[in-house]
Amino acid sequence: MFRISALSIPLCVVSLAGGALAVEQPEKHAGPAVMVHFDYYRTDDATLRSLEQRLGKAIKKAQVGELSESELHLDGNDGYLYMYGPDPDRLYDVARPILRAYRLTANAEITKWHGTAKETFLLPPGKTPHPVGAGGRTPNRSE
């Protein structure tokens, strides 16, 4: 009986020490850094493949992460793009202009994970070339 008690004390100490190490480490999100949720229809296959190729090349060239496989819900018309990388902001900065260029992702919902915190928003439309003033007219320089 003494041997069991003597053995259980070191195991208890090791167990507690291991738990303390886990608490000290920052929590990480186990999933993607960026997720893009968009409306998908079977007729969008060619467009989706083109989008995936452009995103994959741009992400690889910028060395900010990688594009994973897309998830398509054929019965619910939902599509998801998953991107992985150490910095979700840099990853999104590379992907944003490409996502804006495709009708397929024009109204996409973007989710970025920073550790366990997440930020979800709609993909903002591209910038208009000229600012518009009151009444829908372009202001001149003197205004």
From TrEMBL:
Record's keyword terms, sorted: Signal
Signal peptide residues on this chain, from the entry's feature table: 1-22
Keyword match Signal: yes
Ranges for region Disordered: 124-143
Protein name: Uncharacterized protein
